[in-house]
Structures are given as C-alpha cells and as structure tokens.
Amino acid sequence: MTVAGSSSSIPRPDRACSSYLVDDGETPIVLDLGTGAFANLRRHADYDRLGAVVISHMHADHFIDLIPLRYALRYGAHRSEKKLPVHLPPGGLAMLRTLVSAFPHEGGDFLDDVFALSEYDPSRPLAIEGVTLRFAHTAHYIPAFAVRWERDGISVTYSADTAPDERVTTLARETDVFLCEATLRHGEVEQGLRGHSSAADAAGMARDAGVRRLVLTHYPEEATSRDLDQAARAIFAGEIIVADDHTTLDLAR
Ligand SMILES: [Zn+2]
Ligand SMILES: [Zn+2]
Predict the structure, then answer these.
(1) Which ligand ends up closest to the CA of 138?
(2) What total number of domains does the chain contain?
(3) What distance in angstroms lies between residue 208's CA and the mean position of ligand 1's atoms?
(4) In what order do the strands lie in the sheet with 154-158?
C-alpha cells in the first residue's frame, strides 16, 4: 500500500492530495486521485497497469487528477486497448461529465475513450478480480464513502473524509491498515455540521475498531508529524504511522 497523496484539500508544499495505491501484484487499485497525486503515483505503478480507480467522494482533492490520468491514457507512451474502470460514488458520473463538458473536445469523448465509468452501490460489495471492496457512509459535507479493500484475509480500510462515525468504525473492524484522515488541528472545533476528524478522533476510531495499524493522513501544513503522532498515541495503543507522500507499507503479515 502506497500513499500517493497525504494532504488535506490545500496541498502541502511538494505534496499531493488524497490518493492511495493498493497493489496486490495483479490488480493495482487506486483509492482516490486528488490534486497532484497522479505525478506521485507514476513512481509506483505504470498507469497502463492499473486495475481500477475508486473515488470516495466528489471533492476536488479526491478526484481531480482523473484529468491528467485521462491525458496519459489517451496520449501517453503506454496505452492500453482496455478501458480503465473508474468507480464513482452515486451522482459522481453527472458531476464529472458536467465538469469536463467545459473542455474543448479533441475528438472522441473526453472520458469514455479511456475510462469505463460507473457508479458503485455503497450498500453492496464490489468485486474487482480477486479483491472485494466494501463501503460505508461517512459523516461529511457531501455524500462520501469509506472503502475497505480486502483480499485473502488482508484488509486496508480508508476513511475518506469523515467526522468520527460509527459506520466507519464498523467498516474498519480489525482491519490490518486503517488510513484515517486527520484534517483538524489539535483542539480545533468545527462549527455546525461536522465533516472532519483530528488525529485524536482518528485514534479513537482506530481503538474502537481494534485496527492493527493506524495511518494518519489528509492533514494540513500546520500539522507536524510529531504532533499528530502524540495526539493519537495518547488514545490508540497500536502501531501509528504518520503518512507522507510515497510512504509504503507491506501488507503481508
Ligand atoms: Zn478531502
Ligand atoms: Zn471532502
């Protein structure tokens, strides 16, 4: 599992926004492809090798690099005949089509020439080759979905963007790697509707879910990895990793 982008919505200097590559050697799956993440991703996987892209929600810091990926698949040196499956959240298809409708077309269909676009049903598991993905609604400002990747008893659960939420905790139950957002600064309180977590909130969810390893990610430039680690360590007794772009974890037990 490789972090291709660890920033919250404003990219930290030299860092990209949300993206995670889970590569079992057969079907590399990209969870989110945020601002700047495609450039990072290229260090770890050739784009013509990707098995699927799955988008958690339609905030730009989670999907906007589908655009450069599209250029690569259309004009890049490695092109495959097969269209790349892109699984969007419900409503994502219309939004993506509206966005690219403003682009001058270069012949063909901007998206459908290279992508096999679909929307997943978050209430059902999604099978991709030997991998099963499960989803859970999160507490966010727009519909957003946490994703659990699972293969041969090994799992990675990605929180997407969320305030502390039991549905996410349930999805992450005893997962091997819990990628959890830590957008809020220590002590920062969201006014009104909540949609994000702090490192302490992430640690609370990790503890409640009994996860093996907690990876703190989606954090802003004001946060230092020491502060994030300390805030989480007071609550979660398992292994804690503060993500950076290109952080790679071996999923083998
Ligand atoms: Zn975000
Ligand atoms: Zn968001």
Answers:
(1) 2
(2) 1
(3) 23
(4) 126-128, 131-137, 145-151, 154-158, 177-181, 213-217, 239-242
